[in-house]
Every structure is written in C-alpha cells, then in structure tokens.
C-alpha cells in the first residue's frame, strides 16, 4: 500500500466563464468536507480568465480546494503575444499547471522539447506540473502504448533533477479515451501507469518513484472511478467532462458512485 495522497483534478478545458467558475467552486466547497480533503487532494484547473476569481474565492473563504492553470509559457516574459508566464500563475497562487495535454500537442503542435521547457518553467516558479502523456488510437492498436508513453515521459523530464521530479504529477491520458466515453479498462490503466513508475525507478530510483503521483484520465466518471483507483499505480484522476458537474465531481473525489451529502 503506498502512502501517496490521491489527487483528483478537474480539467475544465475551455468551459465556464469567471462567473460560472465562482458558482461551480462554491458548489464544490459546499459539498466537500474536511474528511474529503484529508483523504484526497482536490484541484480545479479553470481557464486563465477564471483564475483571479477562483483565487479570490479560495483565499477569502479559506477553502482547501487547490487550483491551477491548463498551460503556461516556456518563456519568462516579453514579446510573446497571448502567452501567460509561470510568474503570473505563481502570483495568483496557482498550485498546479497542466503541461503537454494531448489537445495542446494535437492542436498547437507542442512537442516533447517544448513540454520539457514548460516543465522547467513551472518548477522555476514553484508550480507543480501535471504532465500529460498517452498514446493515440493507432499506437494502441499497434500495441505500442507503453513505448510511446515512456518516450514522452523521457522527453518531458530531460534534465529535470530528482528533487523536482518527486513532486510532479503525471497524468496518463490515452487520447482515444478522452471525451469519447470509452474509458480504458483498469488493467489498461495499470499497465501504462505501472510502466511509467518503472521508468521513474530507472531514472531516479525507487524512493523518488514511490512519491510521484500518477493519474489516469479519459472518460472518468463516478461509475468507473473505483475500479481505476483500485490499481496499485493509479493515484488519482484528471477529469474532463465529468468535472463540470459539481455533484459528479464530488462523487469522483469520493471514488464512488454514492450519494453526495
Ligand atoms: O482530457 C481529459 C482531462 O484532461 C479527459 O477528458 P474527459 O474526462 O472529458 O474524457
């Protein structure tokens, strides 16, 4: 049994404006209890434009929910129109930043070198990366999911020292399972999450690898979370669509399809 604290994070993607964000976080705050926060680290990952509102709410009401951004710039500051720096996110007291989500790799051409630069930028500003990796359908059909995902891990972690890596969160998100309703089987999730931990052992040793939290992401819902969380190398979930429903997300935080209240 590991002593890693599970981490459930809601990636809102490009959903919820800042007013909706406030209402949503209030619902989560109302439903989640101290007991929940003792058992699980809970985070929301809203769009950039919501972060100030979420910060004000969390600070003002001393909420235990954490928050972070969905991306950051690899650059420090300057003439990079449209980019948001790690320093800006740190100033808003973000705990986390998602890096290398498959939607950014696919639609914005982010490669392993850029992902690696973003991981470095995150650590420079005390932000914990939620590093996303995972294979597409073609790779899965060819049976190359482990090799493909480990190559992404190697690329993202190049030159990142062990004392930083121990705090990272790695999200295994098979692209074919994202937003499709086609969740990976618990065994599929364990196969790749276990291989990721194995690679961390090779790169950084057992002690560091044992501290790293590895999430599964892709069509997670309250009805399938318990079986996924029962896998030894799965320490949480990165939840997309289901995190936009406060009641459903609270059920996921509690690992089960049970009544909220
Ligand atoms: O991409 C995801 C989280 O980052 C998963 O999205 P869904 O939960 O909507 O499949």
UniProtKB/TrEMBL annotation:
GO MF terms listed in the record are: triose-phosphate isomerase activity
Give residues annotated as binding substrate: 11-13, 179, 219, 240-241
Enumerate the UniProt keywords alphabetically.
Answer: Cytoplasm, Gluconeogenesis, Glycolysis, Isomerase
Q: Where in the cell is it found?
A: Cytoplasm
- Catalytic activity entry: D-glyceraldehyde 3-phosphate = dihydroxyacetone phosphate
Q: Where is the active site?
A: 101 (electrophile), 173 (proton acceptor)
The record's principal subcellular location, in a coarse class, is cytoplasm
EC number(s) given by UniProt: 5.3.1.1
Keyword Oxidoreductase attached: no
Query: InterPro entries given for it?
Result: Aldolase_TIM, TIM_sf, TrioseP_Isoase_bac/euk, Triosephosphate_isomerase, Triosephosphate_isomerase_AS
Q: Has keyword Isomerase?
A: yes
Instruction: Please provide an example of a Pfam family that matches this protein in its UniProt record.
Output: TIM
Which HAMAP family does this one have? TIM_B
Assembly behavior: Homodimer.
Which family does the similarity line name? Belongs to the triosephosphate isomerase family.
List, alphabetically, the PANTHER family matched.
TRIOSEPHOSPHATE ISOMERASE (PTHR21139:SF42)
Q: What does this protein do?
A: Involved in the gluconeogenesis. Catalyzes stereospecifically the conversion of dihydroxyacetone phosphate (DHAP) to D-glyceraldehyde-3-phosphate (G3P).
Under what name is this protein listed?
Answer: Triosephosphate isomerase
- What lineage, starting at the top, does this entry show? Bacteria, Bacillati, Actinomycetota, Actinomycetes, Kitasatosporales
Q: What gene is this protein a product of?
A: tpiA
